[in-house]
Amino acid sequence: MKDAVFPDCPIRNVLARISSKWSLLVIYTLDRTGKEAVRFKELQRAIPDISQKMLTVTLRTLEEDGYVTRTVYPEVPPRVEYALTLRTRSLLPHLNALIEWASENKDAIMEDREKSARSK
Fold it and tell me: Which of 14, 15, 86, 91 gives the lowest tally of CB atoms within 10 Å of its CB?
């Protein structure tokens, strides 16, 4: 694991991409819809503070890394749906554990932030 501190370490690269500002939120949202696949606009409505461009970039990155699949249906207008892959489904228990930890510790973390801000 010592190699993980070096910039060209594959583990560091994977963690950096999956922990980008929007990636985990998009994965979480896709899972929470309870649907097998979700249309772009539905996903955009579920995450109101993400721009269309950033959602597109995030979905493309997640697709490149094999976290989501993108299916385009030959309709007019075109229908595009996104779904989580099996790889991502294996990540969900870890993501849910992280969310649970954050929920359990959020009040203490916010208090520490306030203390730090007051001491500056």
Answer: 86
